[in-house]
Design a protein that fits this description.
The structure holds 2 protein chains of 2 kinds. Chain A is α+β, with helices and mostly antiparallel strands. Chain A has 2 domains: about 5-265, Peroxisomal Thiolase, Chain A, domain 1; about 270-390, 3-Layer(aba) Sandwich (Peroxisomal Thiolase, Chain A, domain 1), CATH 3.40.47. Chain A contains 13 helices and 12 strands. In chain A, the strands form 2 sheets. In chain A, strands 1, 2, 5, 6, 7, 8, 9, 10, 11 and 12 form a 10-stranded mixed beta sheet that branches. Chain B is of the alpha/beta class. Chain B folds into 2 domains: about 10-240, 3-Layer(aba) Sandwich (Peroxisomal Thiolase, Chain A, domain 1); about 250-400, Peroxisomal Thiolase, Chain A, domain 1. In chain B, about 65% of the residues are buried. The chains are: A alpha+beta, B alpha/beta. Chains A and B meet through α5, α6, β6, α7 and β9 of A and α5, α6, β6, α7 and α8 of B.
Chain lengths: ~400, ~400
């Protein structure tokens, strides 16, 4: 990556397993316990899917003070909580040189539903001016920017599956390019009943997704395997949703050194591209030869990566696509890297998962053993790759 | 802010594509702007009974029907695809270069109009559309559609920065070229009218019951619009080498956050000032070099006051000509930044500054010539376009002649 060297100096996460900074994430990863369980937040009667990785309400309530909690939607509290944990972990101050990049897949659908319901129940007088701003996806970033004093660029990226990866990649570019001295970058999503219900009905969640399927276009399998998140397994049958927020503090290496910050790892490359495919399709219109990700990985072919994290989440078509892409671009003979490690079985699929993967890679790199590849492919063709190495 | 790596590529605008309330195509857009035609009219797309404001700048039905894009796609996808195709055709890129382009789309509403049809029907027990309408509801659906149909393989992003989304897409695309990641980027914003947006701004009492009057003493709010505008950005040297004819040069940009309030701008325009100053520094331009500012100019009392304060701080009282495109085509939300960037580029190119419509009594707190009513010929060499949004998001772009 051209420009300034970019290092990770802080982590903040609020997920179904834990809430905290670097040590909390390291602990949850070391424990390796899946947080996926039957959903408690809403009824799932009549649905084939019944599992999710939920953040319990006591954890959410403890993230921000009671006054803020009254004003903020739940997803804003998740994002704000994780951002505050990350800046505290890094010991960094706000100001014009601090930016923020938030990735999300679904945004604040709860507020959109509540706002629309106000009208549908009571007409124009039922509309809440307090709720409306939350219907715009950048409100999580706005709330967090105010709280942490981020007055540099504030960017919200909307993307399926790879929202967190993309946010960290863009954040790293902002720092490398000198657009900000430090950036808090990551992702967030919350479980929302209507989205869960529709995805389940469309066959887009375990246990009703099968290889080659596109959500909403195929009938469910007649004898599905049990519900569960089994990325790259032969009986994978769809993702299981999770929720939460994970953010990393990225800053220039010289800036981190100058302020005596603890450096966890370095992001040495961040690339993203597109493999032209129909929306929601996992069947590309053409082979990925030219995307910046393909170029980056092919230029690093044979490199002794310590580990590879993938975006595979149990969606059979995406799992298979990711495996094929990596086999071609990194090397099919790399038994140590294939299949890539997925964190979806621990935390569930959500917009913060990509940032969690990069956080896990940073912790791996901190322990030594070579650089770590964080790869991702999403339905619709977005592809990402980040290389994370030990801080030199 | 220190910027590493000197000698980085210069960025030019080599293609423009617009679908606006005036019609499809950059030509109709410029004709409407130059004539000072206000396209804000009674809304036909959605039910407005009981609302304070019942007007908007809609894309006419006959224009939608003639876009040459499948009617099965969402309204927003259709105008985005038509505008992006026009921009690429205008740039005249070789196919291989076009394929490598990055795609950055500024979006907010996504396919919400069709999603609302479904949800309204579902809630009232009368489903109007199949559940598949929900597949294009999210903002990223536009980038998926464009990336697929245009066959682009470069970095693909959907940036949601409220009313600054379109401007941000241009800034982020320019960065990818300057960093040498790509030589070309297709960038721009899109938003179709949605009930949630219309109802939300009504609920906030930010809509003027009449066509909006930016910078007017009696302004009462904004008017909503819908549009898509895309620009092709290119590494200037690569553009010249292939015989391309750039419309303008993107000299620099600034992107800041107020970190002050979720909906209200900073009262002194602190973040706006930093964004404009950053853009000038990035473009290595003195304030005096800028002859025209295409303002964010929504027509809300708060925004216009803060923007005028910021403009005075950066450029000095009365020292620059200012106008608001929103008085002509409404506030096109996520598209506004790219629609207004296109207007700024065209103004530079034609030596004609589009007017502010409906401006009768200039607010004494706005110490600038805001070009009331009629476009004005002016040979300027640099112009700045402002986009501000909910969440205190500020983006300023500076364009110069190529």
């Amino acid at each position: 990556m051209n420009g300034h060297r970019v290092v990770v100096t802080g982590l903040g996460t609020v997920n179904a397993s834990t809430a905290g900074g670097r040590d909390a994430l390291a602990g949850a990863l070391a424990l390796g316990r899946s947080a996926i369980a039957p959903i408690r937040a809403f009824p799932v009667d009549g649905l084939a899917s019944r599992l999710a990785a939920e953040v319990d309400e006591a954890t959410v309530a403890a993230l921000v003070d009671r006054d803020a909690a009254r004003r903020l939607s739940r997803i804003c509290r998740l994002a704000l909580g994780a951002c505050l944990l990350a800046v505290r972990d890094a010991g960094i101050e706000g100001g014009p040189a601090l930016g923020i990049v938030v990735g999300t897949e679904h945004g604040d659908f709860t507020s959109s539903r509540d706002f629309a319901q106000g009208f549908l129940r009571r007409g124009a007088t039922g509309l809440s001016p307090m709720i409306f701003p939350n219907t715009v996806m950048n409100t999580m970033a706005s709330v967090a920017a105010i709280a942490i004093g981020a007055k540099g660029p504030s960017i919200t990226l909307n993307q399926s599956t790879l929202a967190g990866d993309l946010a960290v990649a863009r954040g790293a570019r902002l720092v490398a390019d000198g657009r900000a001295e430090a950036v808090v970058a990551g992702g967030v999503d919350e479980l929302f009943e209507d989205v869960y219900r529709r995805l389940s009905e469309m066959g887009a969640l375990s246990p009703r997704m099968r290889a080659g399927s596109s959500p909403g276009t195929r009938s469910p399998t007649s004898k599905p395997a049990p519900e569960g998140c089994r990325p790259f397994a032969t009986d994978h049958n769809g993702p299981v949703l999770g929720e939460g927020a994970t953010f990393l503090v990225l800053e220039t290496r010289e800036g981190a050194r100058a302020r005596g910050a603890r450096i966890i790892a370095e992001i040495t490359e961040a690339a993203w591209g597109n493999v032209p495919s129909a929306p929601y399709s996992a069947h590309p219109a053409r082979v990925d030869r030219g995307s910046p990700v393909a170029r980056l990985l092919q230029s690093r072919r044979g490199e002794p990566f310590a580990r590879c994290y993938g975006a595979g989440n149990g969606d059979p078509a995406v799992d298979d696509w990711e495996r094929a892409l990596l086999a071609r671009d990194v090397g099919g003979g790399r038994a140590d890297l294939m299949p890539p490690r997925s964190l979806a079985p621990l935390f569930g699929q959500h917009g913060g998962l990509g940032a969690l993967r990069v956080g896990a890679a940073a912790l791996d790199a901190e322990r030594g053993g070579g650089s770590v590849l964080v790869h991702g492919i999403a339905r619709g063709g977005c592809r990402t790759a980040l290389l994370v190495g030990a801080a030199a | 802010m220190s910027r590493p790596g000197g000698g980085r590529p210069d960025v030019v605008v080599s293609g423009l594509g617009v679908v606006s309330p005036y019609g499809a195509g950059t030509k109709s857009f410029w004709t409407g702007l130059a004539a000072g035609t206000c396209a804000i009219k009674p809304i036909s797309l959605i039910d407005t009974e009981g609302f304070r404001s019942r007007i908007a700048a809609e894309i006419p039905a006959e224009v939608m029907g003639a876009l040459g894009v499948s009617r099965r796609r969402s309204r927003a996808d259709r105008i985005a695809l038509a505008a992006a195709r026009e921009a690429l055709a205008d740039a005249g890129l070789p196919a291989a270069r076009a394929r490598e382009a990055a795609l950055i789309v500024g979006a907010v509403g996504g396919g919400m109009l069709e999603g609302e049809d479904w949800y309204w029907g579902e809630t009232r027990g009368r489903p109007a559309r199949g559940i598949r309408a929900l597949r294009s509801i999210l903002p990223f659906s536009h980038a998926e559609t464009l990336g697929w149909r245009l066959g682009l393989t470069g970095p693909k992003e959907t940036v949601v920065m409220a009313c600054a989304s379109g401007g941000a897409s241009i800034a982020l695309g320019a960065d990818l070229i300057r960093q040498g990641v790509v030589a070309t980027a297709v960038v721009g914003g899109v938003d179709a009218l949605t009930r949630i947006c219309f109802m939300g701004f009504n609920a906030l009492k930010l809509l003027d019951p009449g066509p909006c009057r930016p910078f007017d003493r009696d302004r009462r709010g904004m008017s909503i619009g819908e549009a898509a505008a895309f620009l092709v950005l290119e590494d200037a040297e690569r553009c010249r080498a292939r015989g391309g004819r750039p419309h303008a040069r993107l000299a620099g940009y600034g992107m800041t956050t107020d970190a002050h309030h979720v909906t209200a701008p900073h009262p002194e325009g602190e973040g706006m000032i930093r964004a404009m100053q950053m853009a000038l520094t990035d473009g290595d331009l003195a304030p005096a070099a800028v002859g025209y500012v295409n303002a964010h100019g929504t027509g809300t009392p708060q925004n216009d006051r803060a923007e005028a304060l910021a403009l005075r701080h950066v450029f000095g009282e009365g020292s620059v000509l200012v106008s608001s495109t929103k008085s002509l085509v409404g506030h096109t939300m996520a598209a506004a930044g790219s629609v207004e960037a296109a207007a700024t580029v065209l103004a530079l190119q034609h030596g004609l500054l589009p007017p502010t419509a409906n401006l009768e009594h200039v607010d004494p707190e706005v110490p600038f010539d805001c070009l009331p009513g009629t476009a004005r010929p002016a040979e300027i060499s640099a112009a700045l376009s402002n986009s501000f949004g909910f969440g205190g998001q500020n983006v300023s772009l500076v364009f110069t002649r190529p």
